[in-house]
Design brief:
Strand content: 25-35%
Oligomer: single chain
CATH class: Mainly Beta
Radius of gyration: 19 Å
Shape: globular
Helix content: under 10%
Strand order of the largest sheet: 1-4-7-10-15-18-21
Number of helices: 2
Number of strands: 24
Number of domains: 1
CATH superfamily: Hexapeptide repeat proteins
CATH topology: UDP N-Acetylglucosamine Acyltransferase, domain 1
């Protein structure tokens, strides 16, 4: 009896606590599209005035979405985090924007995915890494892509349309449309062409940004 009551109360709390375009918290966003919903309980949400979320996008429980270093900072006239139409962001994920994160329409993620356009540097070997000023580099995730559980998308990453990122991959660099990306560091392990369909490349393909770092490249 009491178990059923607790479940009914919790369901009512989740419904009342969800953020939608019609709820007071929804008005704080740059844009929160029709039918969009941020599930309850949320993660850390701040910088809403620089966050756009498209129509019918579902953000799971305990997802953190932020723009800027902290609440109350003026980040300028343009939005920073843009999530497209019909997306699904898995529970416990983090989207941490400082300059520009573009997530295309119909992008789905598993739980606990981490996406950021900023990272700490270690230029000065004598200064603690956490005290060195970080660098920003925009992130783009193409429409129709899938990001598996625990994937990490690092600054400067551009993922093409209709691509798959394997669970646990650590992704940095530029990747084409219609590919499967896996590993640490992530590489292209499958590609699609109209002639051959889905196929493995002759050798795992590194993103161009990683190839450029190799001696003699």
């Amino acid at each position: 009896m009491f178990g059923g009551l607790i479940h009914r109360v919790w369901a009512a709390v989740r419904t009342a606590g969800a953020v939608t375009p019609k709820s007071p918290a929804g008005y704080r966003f740059r844009r929160l599209g029709e039918g969009a919903c941020l599930s309850f309980p949320p993660g850390a949400i701040f910088g809403e005035a620089w966050i756009e979320i498209g129509d019918h996008t579902l953000v799971g429980e305990r997802v953190s979405i932020s723009a800027g270093m902290g609440p109350g900072v003026d980040l300028g006239p343009d939005s920073i985090v843009r999530i497209g139409v019909g997306c699904s962001i898995g529970r416990g994920s983090h989207i941490v924007g400082h300059q520009s994160i573009d997530i295309g329409d119909d992008v789905f993620t598993g739980p606990y995915v981490y996406i950021t356009d900023q990272n700490h540097v270690y230029d000065d070997p004598e200064t603690p890494v956490g005290r060195q000023w970080p660098r920003n580099n925009p992130v783009v995730i193409g429409q129709g892509s899938w990001l598996g559980t625990g994937a990490i998308i690092l600054p400067g990453t551009r993922i093409g349309r209709q691509s798959v990122v394997a669970g646990g991959a650590v992704v940095r660099g530029e990747f084409p449309d219609h590919c499967v990306i896996a590993g640490v560091p992530a590489k292209v392990v499958r590609r699609y062409s109209p002639e051959a369909g889905w196929h493995a490349p002759t050798a795992p393909e590194e993103p161009a940004t990683l190839r450029a770092l190799r001696p003699g490249a």
